[in-house]
Amino acid sequence: MIKGFKEFILRGNVIDLAVAVVIGAAFTAIIGALVKGFINPLIGVIFQLGDLTSWVWVVPTLSGGVSNFEVGAIITAIINFVAVAAIVYFVFVFPMNRWKERAAAKAGIAAEEASALPTEQELLIQIRDLLAAQPKA
């Protein structure tokens, strides 16, 4: 059981995944800081609304108190998600898909060239026919 776990942990894909998670967390922190420090204040200035993180929806409760719904935090989280998704798509996914398409196109050309050659079975049939056509000594 321990040996199987060790093989699982040391498998290349697990290490790659761990690195991706760490890089993704750091990347998300950068985007979060960008949204909090630049995009939210910019939206506040454009729409004359102040800082998004301070937006609160105050709702009176039945007991006479109030409940605060932090609408600004929700909007900030949505902006963070869209920003991370857009950057990941345009920086990583889109270029990788283009690279794969080009590689597939090159492989398609190579496959067409390879298909022009006779297959192994066709060559064996030709050899068999040539041997059968030789005069027997």
Shape designation? elongated
Main β-sheet, spatial strand arrangement: 1-2
- CATH fold title: Non-ribosomal Peptide Synthetase Peptidyl Carrier Protein, Chain A
Q: Provide mean pLDDT, rounded.
A: 82
| Total number of domains | 1
CATH top level is Mainly Alpha
Any idea what the radius of gyration is?
A: 31 Å
CATH superfamily grouping: Large-conductance mechanosensitive channel, MscL, domain 1
Describe the 3D structure:
By secondary structure, the chain is mostly helical. The chain has one domain: Non-ribosomal Peptide Synthetase Peptidyl Carrier Protein, Chain A (Orthogonal Bundle), CATH 1.10.1200.120. The chain has helices at residues 2-10, 12-46, 71-116, 120-133, and strands spanning 57-60, 66-69. The protein has a two-stranded antiparallel ribbon with strand order 1-2. α2 (12-46) crosses α3 (71-116). The longest helix is centred in the C-terminal third of the chain and has 46 residues, at 71-116. It is elongated. The model has no long low-confidence stretch (mean pLDDT 82).
Q: What's this entry about, in short?
A:
The protein has 137 residues and is mainly alpha-helical. Helix content is 76%, strand content 6%.
